[in-house]
User: Fold this.
Amino acid sequence: MTQTLKQWLATATSSPELAWVVDTVAGACAEIAAVLRLAPLAGQTGLAGATNVQGEAQKQLDVISNDIFVRHLRANAAVSILVSEELDEALHLNDEGGFMVACDPLDGSSNLDVNVTVGTIFSILAVDPKAPDLLQPGTRQLAAGYAAYGPATSLVLSFGDKVATFAIDASGQFALVEDGVSVPSASAEYAINTARARFWDQATSAYVAENVAGETGVAGKRYNMRWIGSMVADIHRILMRGGIFLYPLDSETASKGGRLRLLYEANPMAFLIEAAGGRATTGPQRILEVQPTSIHQRVPVILGSAEEVARVQAHYQRL
Ligand code: P6P
Assistant:
């Protein structure tokens, strides 16, 4: 008999309240999945006519997904704070809750109108509701995960010790698929937006050049390149079959600190990748040890198969 998410949660954490928060997040993701399935017919894949704090044009579904998250989390008394990509400031939800959720309600939404896999990314931390510390390093996460809205609706989740995957079944509930995913340490697949090559630093350029040289160079094997433009989709592939994802600091993103956001993109993905045996770095530093300075802080992200990330780190150490 396949375990449901609720059944798995009952033994996966010693905190019933933390399990409740994860189950609430999963419920929000299941509702977002249902909305996405019908969005093209509902005319919801277009722009909302507003921009978020990142200065990015919001899609209608960015706003709808954020509203779904707010509604579900406000109904869970254990959640006191929500930090969202779509909200300028942290949102206070409940007075007594001991948890904060940081989320990107709909990552990769620029892919919605072409029906490419998008996702929700979330991170859960403990806070004192009377004096919530919003700026905790990723090592303090209690749980993290993402939902991938693709051919199947997957939920990938960790409490730090292992990574489990779930999928929505015929009844609309998340059911366990795999309880213990490992990222292969070696890979011959990398993900980077090569249109940005002219902005790259030496470490990134040297690593990619080695991969392009394939069996004729120091890497000694042929590489393949994949870039979906949806972080959840690229990371899910890497979790399932290995690889490396790179959105490094470059001369164009340097002034902002990078492209991807620390609290609700880099940290949760780094938490998952490390729990699955991979590595996650900014280049010079382990992502989970970055001390946040603001809730929408951006960082460089290089993560995935340990051997590949180690090769990139070696180039940074030579800089
Ligand atoms: P680029 C989507 O907007 C996103 O935040 C990630 O999901 C994705 O990996 C990245 O940006 C894509 O960036 O520069 O290729 O458009």
User: Anything to note?
Assistant: Helices lie at 5-12, 16-42, 60-74, 202-213, 231-241, 262-275, 306-318. The first strand starts at residue 47 and ends at 51. Residues 107-108, 110, 193, 229-231, 234, 260 surround 6-O-phosphono-alpha-D-fructofuranose (CB under 6 Å).
